[in-house]
Amino acid sequence: MNLSEENLKNIQFHFLSKFNSYCWISGGAIIDALDGKTPRDIDVYFPSEEAKNKAVSKAKVLGAKIIQTYPLGTKIQWEGVEMDLTFIGKDPEEVFDKCDYTIMCIAVDKNGKFFHHQDFFEHWGEKKLYYTGEVQTKGGEHFVNKAKRLNKYLKKGYSMDKENLEFWLELILASYKKPKKPKNKQSNSV
C-alpha cells in the first residue's frame, strides 16, 4: 500500500525533503489522514540524536519556532504546522518496537516507502486498540501519557477489549512504586 497524494499532503510529507538526513513520519498523523481528519501535529523521526539535532537547527534557520524541548525531541511550529522532531530508534521498525498500540505502528519515510505492523490494517479497520507486547514501563509519568493517548483514541471511536485493558492495568499496578513512609523515630526517653 502507498498513501494517496491527499494523505501525503495532509501529513505534510513535503517537509521531509527539507531535511538532509533520512527521516520518516509515523503514528497518529497518518492514522488521522487515513481517517479523513487533519492531524493536530506531525511526528517526524530521525535515525540518530545527531540527525535530529541538525534537523532542529535547519528548521530554525528556515523559520521554525521552538515550542518545547523534551528528553526525546523538540516540538516546533513551522509554516503553521506543529511537528515533533524525535529520535527513539534508527529506523521505523525500531520505533515500532517502542509503540504501545499496533495502530501506532505505521510510517512513511522521505523516499515514500510505507511501513506498518503486520496487523495494522485489521486493527485499524476494526478501530481496536491492541498492545504490541513491547510496552515501555518506565515510571508513572509515562503512564500518564499512555492514559492520555488511550483516552484520545477512545474519544476517536476506537475501543479496547477486556484482555488488553487488563494487561494495561496490570502494567500500571506492577510498575507503580508506593512512596516509602518515613520511619518514625522512637524516643528512648523516660
Radius of gyration: 20 Å
Report the sheet with the most strands, covering strand number, pairing sense and barrel closure. 7 strands, mixed
Order of helices and strands: HEHEHEEEHEEHHH
> Oligomerization state of this entry?
single chain
Q: What's the end-to-end separation, in Å?
A: 82 Å
Number of strands: 7
Full CATH superfamily name of the domain at 5-130: Beta Polymerase, domain 2
Written overview of the protein:
This protein is α+β, with helices and mostly antiparallel strands and 190 residues long. It has seven helices and seven strands; from the N terminus they run H-E-H-E-H-E-E-E-H-E-E-H-H-H. It has a seven-stranded mixed β-sheet with strand order 3-4-5-2-1-6-7.
How would you summarize this macromolecular structure in one to three sentences?
By secondary structure, the chain is an alpha+beta fold. Helices cover about 35% and strands about 15% of the residues.
List the topology elements.
Blueprint: H1 5-10, E1 24-26, H2 28-34, E2 42-45, H3 49-61, E3 65-70, E4 73-78, E5 81-86, H4 92-96, E6 106-109, E7 114-116, H5 120-126, H6 139-155, H7 162-175
Summary tags:
single chain, 190 residues, alpha+beta, Beta Polymerase, domain 2, 7-stranded mixed sheet, globular
